[in-house]
Amino acid sequence: MKIQVIRRNKKVMAILGACLIAAAIVIALFVIFSQGNDRIIGAFVFGIPWVAFSIAYIYYLTWKISFNDEEFSIRYFFITIKYKRDDVVVKNEKRMVRTRGFSTNEVEFRVIRRISDNKLISTIRYHDDNASAYDILMTIPKDRKFLMSTKRDKTTAKDFGLVEKDGRYFNEKDGSEWVPHPMYDYGSGPENGFYKLPLGSFKELITYMEEKREDWDQSLPAAVMILEKYPQELKKYLLKKIKDGIEHFYREFLIFAFKLDDLGSKTTDEKELEDWEYIGLHIGAFDNIAYEASLTWTSPENGGRKSGIPMKNKKYAPIVGINGQVAFEDGGAWSIICYNYEKTSDNTTSAYMRFLNNLIAPPILFKGTEFELYEGSKLVARGIIDNVTSDIDVLDIFTY
């Protein structure tokens, strides 16, 4: 697409130019017709506004905005600052402006802001000559699948750069069709938005969501549509992620994007509820879960603990292993707090367990998982996970 250019209003340029010339003429007259200190004072007094008008004139002369589908740039004097097109948004804002004397009126402005922090980049009055060029900036950059308002600042199709034809919505630039749909809810109700046709398969959407993870106006609407259109595929995807292991920051994104702590309440099917609760526990509430386990302790004669089984010890933290392999990550072994609350025989106990660092612990313990406990290299117990729980009374055991 050809680069569009927006410049300052020509009337402002003309006024500044006239002021600049007038100030220069006054300075010249003082220099020619005044004498002594009057000449110096006059030149100084009128020289200050001349310098100010010169700076403003150069600023207005060189200032311009350029953009295409990928890039947005704005030039101040002779310095150009560039942004990704997706990083800026055009908004209509009303402001109180002083017009005559001390009276003020509400005037509508077109403003360009950076999406990430809402920083104001540029402002122009709505009725100025170049204001209509801002409409082009409101159209959609290519390779975007979703449009979403921020704090419901957009409501109409035009606000999103779309046109309506016979109840359908199009981007005139490329002819793509868009469908209105409620988007992500930050807490005060779903944001307004559109998704582009065709929406795509689950694989395409989940890949797009992961690629755009840092762009919330794309990744969060993608999550909304995935959850609505492909709930079963999403469930299988999350269950596999739990099994394979989830990087800490991606887990935080999944919790936020899919609102995992609330998914279980959206179904009445018992099996579905159990699956979503499992997902919620192992992703959404992973830092607030504990494990109920049955343990069989190695006898002292066979190399076990000589000091006996540590009962009701909140600080007992052996190393956990799976299939004879100690769980290592980033060069360190994972310790797990083991609270034996009941002795079921001479060498067996029922215990509650929790990782010493639960938030970033590896996803290796699930209901039915068989494991070992080590003190250093010494195998002290074998066990099986009976249940995964977020019971507050159990979690309180691990609060010191």
Q: Please state roughly what percent of the residues sit in beta strands, choosing from under 5%, 5-15%, 15-25%, 25-35%, 35-45% or over 45%.
A: 25-35%
Helix content: 25-40%
CATH superfamily of one domain: Translation factors
CATH topology-level name of one domain: Elongation Factor Tu (Ef-tu), domain 3
DSSP helical segment count: 9
What order do the SSEs take from the amino end to the carboxyl end, as H and E?
EHHEEEEEEHEEEEEHHHHHEEEEEEEEEH
Shape: elongated
Counting DSSP E segments of at least 2 residues, the number of strands comes to 21
Q: Give the termini distance in whole angstroms.
A: 62 Å
The top-level CATH class of one domain is: Mainly Beta
Could you characterize what this model shows?
The structure is a single chain. This protein is of the alpha+beta class and about 400 residues long. Among the domains are: about 80 residues; about 110 residues, Elongation Factor Tu (Ef-tu), domain 3 (Beta Barrel). The chain has 9 helices and 21 strands. The strands form 5 sheets. It has a 7-stranded antiparallel sheet. A 5-stranded antiparallel sheet has the order 8-12-11-10-9. The protein starts with a strand and ends with a helix. The model has no long low-confidence stretch (mean pLDDT about 80).
